[in-house]
Amino acid sequence: MRRASATPPRRAANAQYSLAAPESLAVKIAAYQRRKMYAAFLALGIGDDDEILDVGVTSDRSFEHSNYLELWHPHKARLTAVGVDDASHLPVAYPGVRFVRADGRALPFADAVFDFVHSSAVLEHVGSRAQQARFVAELARVARKGVFLTTPNRWFPVEFHTLMPLVHWLPPRLFRRLLVALGRDFFAAESNLNLLSAGQIRAMAEAIGLSGYEVRGLRLLGWPANLLFILRKPAIEADRASVGALPPAARRPAGR
């Protein structure tokens, strides 16, 4: 007779950093929220000819909306997708999209070479606060007109990745210890999950030296579930960046 183990079973996260099943309510809610995120992104005034960099694409294909920008944006030829995962399926699934395998904290592009930079649900996965600041600074560096970034709100009652309520409100050290005890070791590592509040994002932007930004909540059942960081670069700065800028075709990495 097998004895029951005293250690909780280890549950594996998918490439989307989620424990949710593909057809679960959590995934349907995520799709609903991402539709609103995409609408908010378009509301920045995205033009048909704007070159867009999407930072943090995933290899995950279990959720239809895993890479929602590539799925929903009609101008695929204006999209360059970047990620540490092997997301080379994207140009096949969405003809016109270009994929570059790179780290968002060290982007292989010149300053202000993309009109807009988009990144959804990536910031909480890049590591320490210093690494998160480096990531945001890189997005701002390569953007000419603006940056649109989303991340879960630490103060929403349910933690989206682990599907656990309230415990992520504990001090981070205690939260991580609890995750290990419950068999969620992957999310206990700061490099895999480091949640932020609106105040922490604002403090990060100030420390980097950014201006012209706003942090707003994207609500679910009346509560800010996701945070949107929106940076609009001054028109004069964008105009200066456009002088001598590469034409759209030249912005694409060779051989892709």
Total strands: the figure is 9
Percent range for β-strand residues: 15-25%
Number of helices: 9
Low-pLDDT parts are: 1-11, 246-251
* Order of secondary-structure elements: HEHEHEEHEEEHHHEEHH
Roughly what is the average pLDDT, rounded to an integer?
89
Q: Which radius of gyration do the C-alpha atoms yield?
A: 19 Å
Q: Shape from CA axes? A: globular
If strands are numbered along the chain, what order do they take across the biggest sheet?
A: 3-2-1-4-5-9-8
Account of the 3D structure:
This protein has two domains: 25-154 and 196-242, Rossmann fold; 165-194, no CATH class. The protein has nine helices and nine strands. It has a seven-stranded mixed β-sheet with strand order 3-2-1-4-5-9-8, sandwiched between helices. A two-stranded antiparallel sheet has the order 6-7. It is an alpha/beta fold and 256 residues long.
Fold blueprint:
Elements: H1 25-42, E1 52-55, H2 68-72, E2 79-83, H3 90-93, E3 98-101, E4 114-120, H4 129-142, E5 143-152, E6 158-159, E7 164-165, H5 172-181, H6 185-188, H7 198-208, E8 213-220, E9 223-232, H8 235-242, H9 248-251
Parallel strand pairs: 1-2, 1-4, 2-3, 4-5
Antiparallel strand pairs: 5-9, 6-7, 8-9
Helix pairs in contact: 4-7
Please describe the structure with a list of short key phrases separated by commas or semicolons.
two-stranded antiparallel sheet, 7-stranded mixed beta sheet, Rossmann fold, alpha/beta, 2 domains, 256 residues, globular
